[in-house]
Design goal:
It is built from three helices and five strands. The protein is of the alpha+beta class and about 150 residues long. It has a five-stranded mixed beta sheet, sandwiched between helices. The protein is globular, with a radius of gyration of 16 Å. The termini are far apart. Keywords: Hydrolase, Metal-binding, Metalloprotease, Protease, Zinc. This is DNA repair protein. GO terms for molecular function: metal ion binding; metallopeptidase activity.
Length: about 150
């Protein structure tokens, strides 16, 4: 009888995106640069249609080493699996990361669910010794930084 167990190998793959400019991803050391980096990778056609959640991963010089769309949601919420978020950080050998999600409503005020999620992400990052730099909320016309507003 043949053993039917299959072990799955996890791999990180790198895909060069020629549409992205290096200037968006070097020394991302403030919320404005972070907003620009997230907008560069975001599907702009959906920013005011449905919520999505992205992460950008950094090295110790605050240069981007990768990004990943963590989840797509509905009109007013997105479910985030923190295990997936953190596993990508580990696979990318990042020392820091930032996250962002959008509010299709155009409202830049974080909800209580946004605040609770940020606390859970911060706790997970602390446990793994990977620094969370910011949580950005994007709308089609502006952004909110948890770091700038003292919420992180």
């Amino acid at each position: 009888m043949q053993n039917k167990f299959i072990a799955h190998e996890l791999r990180l793959s790198y895909h060069k995106n020629d549409k992205l400019s290096v200037s968006h991803f070097s020394s991302v050391n403030n919320s404005r640069k972070m907003e620009n980096a997230f907008r560069a990778v975001w599907n702009s056609n959906e920013i005011d249609i449905r919520e999505s959640f992205y992460a950008i991963y950094f090295n110790s010089k605050l240069d981007v080493v990768g990004y990943h769309k963590i989840a797509d949601g509905g009109l007013d919420m997105v479910m985030v699996d923190i295990r997936l978020l953190m596993s990508c950080a580990l696979l990318a050998n990042s020392t820091r990361f930032a996250v962002a999600h959008n509010h299709p409503s155009g409202n830049l005020i974080p909800s209580e669910a946004d605040r609770q999620l940020t606390k859970k992400i911060a706790a997970a990052s602390h446990l793994l010794d990977i620094q969370i730099l910011d949580h950005i909320i994007l709308t089609d016309i502006g952004y909110y930084s948890f770091r700038d507003n003292g919420d992180l």
